[in-house]
């Protein structure tokens, strides 16, 4: 019999029954029971669902954040590599610039005429203590002239051709230079020595000489002008009964790594 009732009418009767039940519960003071059935009872089921949904949202957000950080990290690494390359290039240019400035710094206030030269070759074993320069007789270079690097005397011209010159370093045992110790006006003779560098001789034993005193050319030899820097006193030894002090001189110029020099033309 109930099945013969149209479907729409059945829905309408069901809604009326629901409204009737709800109204009856409300009138009898059972609204709280209705709230528990409709809201509180499903809560244990809804809570895990909400928690799972929140976790999923956080997880998806973390995935996108990690991807964004990975992309940003790649961009930063590329920028760092580029900057490191630029720094390396600038440091190389600065080193070369400082080398040239050190040499040209002497040229800016020369005591005599200077002939700029490039070192073409050197004695690889250091036996002959010589350098081959790119300047020669055509540039006014002659035997006996002094050669400087960074303002310090490093040798004397030994042989010349039209376009080249061979220089013997001041560290060679056969090189002798007349020098003077700073403001003390003490004159002596500088000699090269294998294994000992530069030795300063003929300074009287009673002379007041201290480590660090500046040594310059004395100008006695007309081929090398006075007041050219040679180095500084690095060791002072007083020997009992000796007539002269035993002095060692050091130069700040690395003679093994000279690329640019100037020949002094008095």
Give me the count of strands: 12
Q: What's the average pLDDT?
A: 77
Q: Structural class of the helix and strand makeup?
A: alpha+beta
CATH superfamily (homologous) name of the largest domain: Rod shape-determining protein MreC, domain 1
User: What is the molecular shape?
Assistant: rod-shaped
Runs in which pLDDT lies below 50 for 5 or more consecutive residues are: none
Number of domains: 2
Q: How is the quaternary structure best described?
A: single chain
H/I helix tally? 3
* Residue share in β-strands: 25-35%
Cross-sheet strand order for the largest sheet: 1-2-5-4-3-12
The helix-strand sequence is HHHEEEEEEEEEEEE
Let me know the largest β-sheet.
6 strands, antiparallel, barrel
Distance from N terminus to C terminus (CA atoms, Å) equals 138 Å
Question: Any idea what the CATH architecture of the largest domain is?
Answer: Beta Barrel
| CATH class membership of the largest domain | Mainly Beta
Please compute the radius of gyration using only Cα atoms: 47 Å
Helix content: 25-40%
CATH topology of the largest domain: Thrombin, subunit H
